[in-house]
Amino acid sequence: MVQVPEIDGTFIEVETLVEETHLGDALADVRQVLTDLGIDQADLTRGLYTDAVRAHRESQ
């Protein structure tokens, strides 16, 4: 979990290491962790917070 001064919000990355043949189960597990943390689908992004920081710094 990380908070970055340049951008609003708190960011969390949930990762797992799994063989490709178990990818579906792993994704289900990650989704369950997010649900258990109260993180809604609408809160998710594929964007990188580091990209958001870079964009913010370039706009200054």
Instruction: Work out the strand percent.
Output: 5-15%
- First and last CA, distance: 25 Å
Averaged pLDDT: 89
What would you call the shape? Answer: elongated
Describe the structure.
The chain is mainly α and 60 residues long. It contains 2 helices and 2 strands; from the N terminus they run ββαα. The chain has a two-stranded antiparallel ribbon with strand order 1-2. A hairpin with a 6-residue loop joins β1 and β2 (10-11). The longest helix has 14 residues, at 23-36. The model has no long low-confidence stretch (mean pLDDT 89).
Summary?
With 60 residues, this protein is mostly helical.
Which tags fit this structure?
60 residues; mainly alpha; 2 strands; 42% helix; elongated
Write the layout of secondary structure elements.
Layout: E1 2-3, E2 10-11, H1 23-36, H2 49-59
